[in-house]
User: What shape does this take?
Amino acid sequence: MSKPIPIGYALANLPRYTSYPTAPHFGPLGEAEYRGWLGGIRPEDPLSLYLHIPYCASLCWYCGCHTTVTRNEGRIARYGAALLQEAALLKAALPAHAGVAAIHLGGGTPSTLGAAGLRTLLAGLRDTFGIRPDAELAIELDPRVLDEDIVAAMAEGGITRASFGVQDIDPAVQRRIGRIQPEEMVARGVGWLRTAGIRGINLDLMYGLPGQTGARVAATARFAAELGADRVAVFGYAHVPWMKPHQNAIHTEDLPGALERLQQAETAEQVLVAAGYQAIGLDHFARPADPMAVAAREGRLRRNFQGYTTDAAPVLLGMGASSIGGIEAAGYAQNEPNERRWVAAVEAGTLPIRRGRAVTAEDRLRRHCIERVMCDFALDLAVLPPALVAEVRPALASLEADGLLDLTPDLLRVTAAGRRHVRHVAACFDAYLGSGSGRHSAAV
Assistant: This one.
């Protein structure tokens, strides 16, 4: 039997590595530089679009997203119109490309646009960009603000996959996170989607919430499996009140400790694997025939700002306030986060880029290493520059001594026990870790 991983690994704070360099290392980026990046896109490059809709009807206390509460229909409609204006600006700046392979509507709660707003937005995107016939169109949903008209608009617009935020089905936990959401409400929404022909169903769960226990996490995981979700994500709650002051409504003393968080994550995995799901990466699960499970088995799984993904497009265009995009060959670009300033910039005919980071050849190499470790739990060291391998080998050897990985001259492989702590392995390749002012969430 292998020795247990020291609990200190679960206590550490590390990036989630949805980009490299990570967002705390972004700096000012101007429109002219970004336009230069766009001009370098090749005709064979497919595009992916991420549209951020920052509105919610109410604020969930655990939320770490860039969002705001409003029911002002005029404000929401103006924002939707500005998204299409930004799409037109991007189209004008783009050279020939291979069409749009994926669209993701995130938030916030994208359905706050309403049925009419969603129809207009999705139709406008089709008119503006060349969307490929096999493109995946995904949307994040809150079952509390969903109705059949919105589902019909999604289906008409070509949505193929929807993600429901479930978190925990226990009413006591829901009261402590400011999100009352009965099981029946989630099941009803899933039924509407399937009736409308939207077959890709994701359910997002969380552990580490106030009042959660292993039994409650297990019950929620069983609920997701019994509902027949194609994919289930099990995220650790990131308590970052210094970044999200509303999280102060959750008292630190009510949160599970590091060991209990670890046990909750393992409990969810045990339930889902027993129900027939394939464990993928750090926190995802999918039915074996699902495209994400197939991609993981074939070494094609990717990681970006939406987490684990099958999206292989080398160009991700962020649209909407605060959204982040990335061009693999050039760098990352983040839009103006302030909604009013973002709208004003777009309406003035300018691309609303404010921050970003150009990437070097070394950044791209290290990004590859981090992504493959996070996705495959393995890395071929033989194909890497000897100088990089020599640099990281002492840190890797330390992790090997603690049971996180097995190391040979040519191969790094994360152990079964070390998979929960894979961010520590990825961090060995992070040349910027420890510099800058960024603070990160718990590693488990």
